[in-house]
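sry for the spam today, last one i promise. C-alpha cells for design, 106 residues
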C-alpha cells in the first residue's frame, strides 16, 4: 500500500465513500472538484505514476479506462475527459496513479 492519501483511503484509514470498487480499483469523488462530475479512478496496486509503471501493469491500467467507460455509461455522461497527470512537472500531486474522470455533461 502506498504511503499517500490514496493509499490510506484504499486501506480504510481515511473513511471515503466509494462510487465503485472491484478487485483492481476503487473510485471516489475528488475532494476539490474541477467539473460537475469529477471522479478519481485509483488502482489498489500502489503504482506511483505512469512514469513508474511496468509492462505487467498494462492490464490494471487498461482496466481503469474500462471502469471509466462503464461509469460514463451508468452516469449517462454525454461526454467526458479522462486525465492522467504524470510527474510533478506534469501536474501530479498524489503519487499513487489515478485517472481523473471529468464532465460537465451529466
Ligand atoms: P493529481 O494532481 O493528478 O495528483 O490529482 C490529485 C487529486 O486528488 C486532486 O484533484 C485533489 O483534489 C485530489 N485529492 C486529494 N486528496 C483527496 C482526498 N482525500 N479525497 C479525494 N480527493 C483528494
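last one done:
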Amino acid at each position: 500500500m502506498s504511503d499517500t492519501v490514496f493509499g490510506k483511503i484504499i486501506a480504510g484509514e481515511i473513511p471515503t465513500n466509494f462510487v465503485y470498487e472491484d478487485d483492481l480499483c476503487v473510485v471516489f469523488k475528488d475532494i476539490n472538484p474541477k467539473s460537475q462530475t469529477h471522479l478519481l479512478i485509483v488502482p489498489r496496486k500502489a503504482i506511483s505514476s505512469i512514469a513508474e509503471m511496468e509492462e505487467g501493469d498494462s492490464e490494471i491500467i487498461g482496466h481503469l479506462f474500462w471502469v471509466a467507460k462503464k461509469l460514463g455509461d451508468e452516469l449517462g455522461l454525454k461526454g467526458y475527459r479522462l486525465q492522467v497527470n504524470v510527474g510533478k512537472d506534469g501536474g501530479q500531486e498524489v503519487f499513487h496513479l489515478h485517472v481523473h474522470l471529468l464532465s460537465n455533461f451529466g
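The longest strand covers residues 37-43. ok im logging off now
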